[in-house]
Amino acid sequence: MIKLANLLPQSLYECVVARVSLDGSVMLAKNRDRAYAPELEVVHEIVNDVEVVYMRDTITDWSEGMNSNGIGIVNASLAVNFDEKEGELAKDKAEKGKTTRPSYDGEKIRTALAKPKLSEAVRSILSFAGQDKKDIGVKGMTIVANHKHSFVIEMTSQHLPIVKKIQGDKPTVRTNHGVAYPDTGYTGGVKRASSMSRQQLAANALSGVVSRKDVLDALSVQRTSDKFMNPYRRNNSYDMTTSSQVLMDLGGLRFEFRHDSENSSFKGYINNLPKGYDPKINVIIETTTNNK
């Protein structure tokens, strides 16, 4: 049996997350990069009387999304040493017939999405432990928002959370290096250079966007000839490519999901809503290709 570790010696966990204000609404967006091919699904259900929609990586259980009260959550990792191995560890165990949960943050984000109030969602991100009582809170760079208020939460297992309220309409972008804690995430070399480049190029691109329909396209355009430095990673020498994008219109209650057919497999839209229920969130699922 061929192990994924033999095929993917370095499964990086990198992304671009952003908050933008457009068309009178607040929106959250994300480009999700992987060096393995994630198996993705979109789940639409009721949890604790709250309608939620989220994407889920079935290999790692990673999830993020929004609810019908207009609360959305996206996250970029800072625990890069562990996360570089997360996908291959999960896949390797699955190939051996073992059940694995390499990260509890997917469950934590789904728990926060089931909260009816933004304040409760923020509190959950900071304090919910889930199955591992020692692993408290969602680690990394988390943007949580509704159509009125937005926050960036930065924390790791070694750093207490710092919560910063986002002011104004200027785009806020986070990648995989610490801001409040500069010793976290990628701190040097080409990976930090890429993290800095992706943050700046994404911020510049989003500053020129005037409509919701252009957000994901703006995050897809190649802004520099070095493909590894772009917000949307196409084929490059580091084998790090963008596998999916998500856009959440928190005021308009719209969830858009794009999966890259060359770098991920889409397992489907899972509709767990009660029979006869009229959903409040409009879900749009599209397919794109890495070479678009």
**Rg value:** 18 Å
Average pLDDT, rounded to a whole number, is 87
Shape: globular
CATH superfamily: Penicillin V Acylase, Chain A
Describe the main β-sheet briefly: 6 strands, mixed
Instruction: Please report the total strand number as a whole number.
Output: 14
Q: What fraction of the residues are assigned to beta strands by DSSP?
A: 25-35%
Number of domains: 1
Q: Would you kindly provide a brief summary of this structure?
A:
This protein is 21% helix and 34% strand.
Structure description:
This protein is 21% helix and 34% strand. With 292 residues, it is an alpha+beta fold. The protein has one domain: Penicillin V Acylase, Chain A (4-Layer Sandwich). The strands form three sheets. It has a six-stranded mixed sheet with strand order 10-1-2-11-12-14. Helix 3 (105-113) runs antiparallel to helix 4. The longest helix is centred in the last third of the chain and has 19 residues, at 189-207. It is globular.
Secondary structure blueprint with pairings:
Layout: H1 4-7, E1 13-22, E2 25-34, E3 39-47, E4 50-57, E5 63-67, E6 72-76, H2 80-95, H3 105-113, H4 118-127, E7 140-145, E8 150-156, E9 159-165, E10 172-174, H5 189-207, H6 215-218, E11 241-249, E12 254-260, E13 265-271, E14 282-288
Parallel strand pairs: 3-13, 12-14
Antiparallel strand pairs: 1-2, 1-10, 2-11, 3-4, 4-5, 6-7, 7-8, 8-9, 11-12
Task: Sum up the structure in keywords.
292 residues, alpha+beta, Penicillin V Acylase, Chain A, six-stranded mixed sheet, four-stranded mixed sheet, 6 helices, disordered N terminus
